[in-house]
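Researcher: Quick test of sequence recovery. Tokens follow.
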């Protein structure tokens, strides 16, 4: 009998699950992707700015995984026939903005945590004597701590405030004192369970993930990330349902019944398995009736809201020869990071100068609660102050808001996730950033794992 599987959520995790399901299941398997918004892709969204293609969400992916092999993103891109479309950013340095100047990003760090304190220069002071060998590993087996707690204890406050916080803020929009080491820096968490000093743990993690010299670290798809989204949807041969929210999941004798659509005009759909590729809160709501223990474990995850401001500055606008910069929270600016898109991606020099600024951190939602014109004005003001001079008025601009867009993984997140997954009945699986981490490769791997889990449930 033909199987039917629903993927709830049309972001990259859900689409990766759909592609993997297509590869694992019989050709007549019906796959339905339910996306309550009007478009697939989630936070992969390609836009236009001043006649230039510019991402309104994630702009690149890691080329390799922690084991040194190609990342799940690269593997999927190749599976979709887009391997020849991978492009890489220019080899241009980034900087830190603090104290009214741009300082070169110190080398030899792991997400801002240094393995060689001598390379910090005057960016931050660290007390090497604090990182002493106490005769035991930094962390016990299975222990998880906040990144900030570990680094402050071993290196002091300045390394966290000036290096780690801006790095984690750029990726997670979070603060080091609230984010799980095990989720945000899994390599360092592993080596910290063996090594006795933070310096040795960082160096061991760097050796384990050593990249081949000259090999690109990041990649993107020529033409934009939305091209990846469209190719994944096509390769899955899934039926795509847009604008029809799934409001409830119920168990049936042979699988699952989905309650769809608005309350006044409900619809139902019966399927054999479900992949939930949605944020934690809607996932908890959908699971509340069929897996209450899993719902309880997921419901406490917090999120940070961010906004991106895209600026097309007049051609020839001078900018530092950088790919961009990060801003420590201590600077007090709304802008937490900026990307000089024209430089980073080697765009033609006769066009507008494209700058993308990221605004907002965890706990700062109220600073984003202004209309687009105000956010644009504040971004321009912050950028001018950070760059040491007022920017010219843009020839084009946009503001992209991602309300509640970035999960904040508190210490112990992976244990809570494992408990949630263990409480799921067969035929239900979780996928996405809420559960396994931020980043295109992580989300793709999460979706593929979910597809494999529900396929195994059928076989069983």
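Model:
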């Amino acid at each position: 009998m033909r199987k039917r599987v629903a993927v709830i959520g049309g972001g990259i995790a859900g689409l990766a699950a759909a592609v993997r399901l297509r590869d694992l299941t019989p050709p007549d398997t019906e796959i339905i992707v339910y996306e309550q918004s009007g478009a697939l892709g989630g936070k992969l969204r390609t836009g236009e700015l001043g006649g230039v293609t510019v991402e309104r969400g994630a702009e690149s992916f890691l080329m390799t995984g922690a084991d040194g092999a190609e990342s799940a993103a690269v593997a999927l891109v190749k599976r979709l026939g887009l391997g020849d479309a991978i492009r890489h950013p220019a080899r241009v340095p980034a900087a830190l903005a603090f104290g009214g100047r741009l300082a070169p990003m110190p080398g030899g760090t792991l997400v801002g945590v240094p393995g060689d304190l001598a390379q910090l220069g005057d960016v931050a002071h660290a007390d090497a004597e604090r990182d002493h060998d106490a005769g035991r590993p930094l962390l016990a087996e299975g222990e998880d701590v906040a990144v900030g707690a570990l680094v402050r204890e071993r290196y002091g406050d300045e390394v966290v405030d000036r290096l780690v916080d801006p790095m984690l803020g750029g990726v997670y929009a979070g603060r080091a004192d609230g984010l799980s080491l095990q989720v945000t820096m899994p390599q360092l968490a592993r080596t910290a369970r063996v090594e006795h000093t933070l310096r040795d743990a960082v160096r061991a993690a760097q050796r384990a993930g050593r990249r081949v010299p000259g090999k690109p670290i990041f990649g993107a798809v020529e033409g934009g990330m939305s091209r990846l989204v469209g190719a994944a949807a096509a390769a899955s041969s899934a039926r795509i349902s847009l604008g029809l929210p799934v409001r409830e999941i119920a168990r049936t004798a042979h699988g699952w019944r989905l309650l769809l659509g608005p309350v006044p005009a409900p619809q139902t759909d019966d399927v054999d398995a479900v992949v939930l590729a949605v944020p934690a809160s809607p996932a908890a709501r959908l699971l509340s009736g069929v897996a209450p223990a899993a719902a309880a474990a997921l419901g406490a995850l917090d999120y940070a809201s961010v906004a991106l401001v895209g600026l097309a500055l007049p051609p020839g606008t001078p900018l530092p020869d950088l790919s961009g910069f990060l801003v420590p929270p201590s600077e007090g600016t709304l802008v937490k990071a900026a990307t000089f898109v024209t430089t980073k991606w080697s765009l033609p020099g006769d066009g507008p100068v494209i700058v993308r600024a990221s605004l907002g951190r965890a706990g700062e939602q109220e600073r984003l609660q202004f209309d687009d014109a105000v956010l644009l004005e504040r971004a321009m003001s912050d950028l001018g102050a950070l760059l040491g001079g007022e920017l010219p008025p843009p020839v084009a601009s946009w503001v992209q808001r991602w309300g509640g867009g970035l999960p904040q993984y508190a210490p112990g997140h992976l244990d809570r996730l494992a408990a949630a997954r263990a409480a799921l009945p067969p035929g239900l699986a979780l996928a996405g950033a809420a559960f396994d981490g931020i980043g295109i490769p992580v989300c793709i791997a999460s979706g593929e794992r979910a597809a494999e889990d529900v396929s195994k449930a059928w076989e069983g």
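Residues 384 and 390 are 4 Å apart (CA to CA).
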